[in-house]
Amino acid sequence: MSRLLVVLGAVALAACSTPAEDEVSADEGQFQGTVSNLVEMAFETEVRAPSEAEATRLVTSQLYWLVGPFHELGGDPRLTWAKTTKGRTEAAEVAEGARAESIVHFSVKLEVAWPKNRAIPQSYDLVLPRRLDSTSQSAFYDKYKDSCISPYAHDVDYSNAWYDFQPDRSGCTLAAEDVIRPKATVKKTQDNTVNTYPEYDRIWKDKKFQAVVVFGRDDKDNATETDLGAKEYAKYVAAMRVQAGLTDVVVKEEEFRDGGYTNKLALIDAKMAEGRTVHAAVFLLAKPSLSTNEFVRRYDPETEEADFVAFAGHAGLGGNIQKLQGIGKYKPGQYQVFVYDGCDTFAYVDKTVFDKKRAANGAAEDPNGTRDFDVILNALPAPWTTGDPSVLTLTRKLIDDKTPTKFEQILEIFPRSGAPVVVGDEDNKFTP
Q1: Which residue of 90, 261, 287, 393 has the fewest CB atoms within a 10 Å radius of its CB?
Q2: Looking at residue 95, what is its pLDDT?
Q3: How many CB atoms lie within 10 A of CB 273?
Q4: What is the pLDDT of residues 94-113, one digit of tens each?
Q5: Which domain holds residue 332?
Q6: Which of the listed residues 188, 214, 233 is the one where a domain comes to its end?
Q7: 36 and 160 in one domain?
């Protein structure tokens, strides 16, 4: 799914050496990728800004400039989980009459979805802009847009050029005063989990399967079914009407205005054998980040007891993901599978939802917020599907507990080009 234009500006959100040994540390262990391993990078960087406070605010924005280079590699940085520690501050030498600058040094630890088809190195060279304020970024973009930004980029300006930054591109020559080149140490954090399943027994313990699925439109201004997102919404609703094993299917659709746009909600209820039921709330939104109370008051009650919560659409350079993470309700002990099926959602999903799960369960019982929580993400740009939406196929797999599907197979439902991963499955106990 292609990206949308959002202005990050200076807002804080959001060449290799020899291969290393596959050293595995006792980390959280919550990762499984179709085409990715999880590594941790540690490096020193600096940010130059008019003040120490401004530099501290901008260091997270600096890390976003790793997205483009890692895309070229076939990986993705877990931006919103980065750990930055401020070090020393010094005054920069500037020409007489020039603006004073502070140089603030930072230590960074950053997880990266690293492509399995590339050896994990002991170290890796990074390239980052030194100055991240809007004026400096605009000048940086104007200076390097023709040589260091992907020629295939679209809807690009200085505020989102990080997404298509290609410092290794032929002809890209970056002046030393404009960039810093940290050398990161690299280690594999843990082996991928294998042979794990969704907790089918917990999903069906109450004899009810409940899903909340949100589709985002490709074009927020196109409210017709010619829109790619609208087509996926329609496919999902139509397929659930005739889903094998479901009887007495009732679908109630409504349109509602929110954020100045027309949106849709389909409530689907059905029966199954053995006294089981299925309930799904399926939304079509112009854009999640534009949605306000009319969406939230419909969405929140549906999520509290949902077994499956999914979003399929544009990540909006993180804006849509941040919106969805900030809403929803969580019930203690409620096992859930979440999906954020958009571009680079591995980079954009932060600890908000994990913190909410931990708060619901209690920190003593669930210190990482993953005890009842498995999350599927994309570590690369994700295309629109040409057949059934991936979230529809996964819905069918979760309903069918007679033939359980392991996560290795579930990840294959999603296009490999998007490098799908699952986090949180390391503590799953269910086996067929």
Answers
A1: 90
A2: 66
A3: 8
A4: 666 667 889 999 999 999 99
A5: 200-427
A6: 188
A7: yes
268: CATH: 3.40.50
Residues in CB range of 5: below 8 A, 6 or more apart: 155, 157, 160, 317
In this structure, are 207 and 172 located in the same domain? no
Q: Which of 210, 212, 214 is nearest to 270 (CA)?
A: 210
Q: Alpha-carbon torsion 414, 415, 418, 421, what sign? A: positive
| Position 5 pLDDT exceeds 70 | no
- The pLDDT score that the predictor gives to residue 1 is 55
Q: Are 223 and 78 in contact (CB under 8 A)?
A: no
75-93 residue pLDDT tens: 999 998 999 999 999 988 7
Two structure tokens written together for 58 = 């901008």
The residue among 188, 211, 237 that closes a domain is 188
CB atoms within 10 A of CB 19: 12
* pLDDT for res 107: 98
**Contact (CB, 8 A) for 166 and 43:** no
Interacting residues of 26 by C-beta distance below 8 A, sequence separation 6+: 190
In the prediction, which pLDDT does 97 show? Answer: 63
- Examine the pLDDT at 8 and tell me if it is beyond 50: no
Structure tokens at 318: 């993180």
pLDDT, tens digit, 9 for 90 and up, residues 185-223:
999 887 678 899 999 999 999 999 999 999 999 999 998
pLDDT tens figures, 129-185: 999 999 999 999 999 999 999 999 888 999 999 999 999 999 999 999 999 999 999
Q: Are residues 262 and 406 in the same domain?
A: yes
- The structure tokens listed for 210 are 């409940």
Residue 68 lies in a domain: yes
Q: Cα(415)–Cα(381) distance, rounded to whole angstroms?
A: 10
Q: How far is it, in rounded angstroms, from Cα 162 to Cα 393?
A: 33
- Amino acid letter, residue 387: G
Domain count of the fold of the chain: 2
Listing DSSP states for 180-246 in one string gives E--EEEEEE--PPP-S----HHHHTTTSEEEEEEEEE-SSTT--STTSHHHHHHHHHHHHHHT-TT-
The reply to whether 138 and 158 lie within a common domain is yes
If residue 231 lies in a helix (H) or strand (E), which one and from where to where?
Answer: helix 228-241
> For residue 96, what pLDDT is reported?
65
Q: Is residue 432 part of a domain?
A: no
- Angle value at C-alpha 69, between 67 and 74, nearest 5 degrees: 85
> How much is the pLDDT for 385?
80
**Residue 141 neighbours by CB distance under 10 Å:** 20
Same domain, 286 and 420: yes
Indicate if the alpha-carbon torsion angle 147, 150, 152, 153 is positive or negative.
negative
Does residue 248 fall inside a structural domain? yes
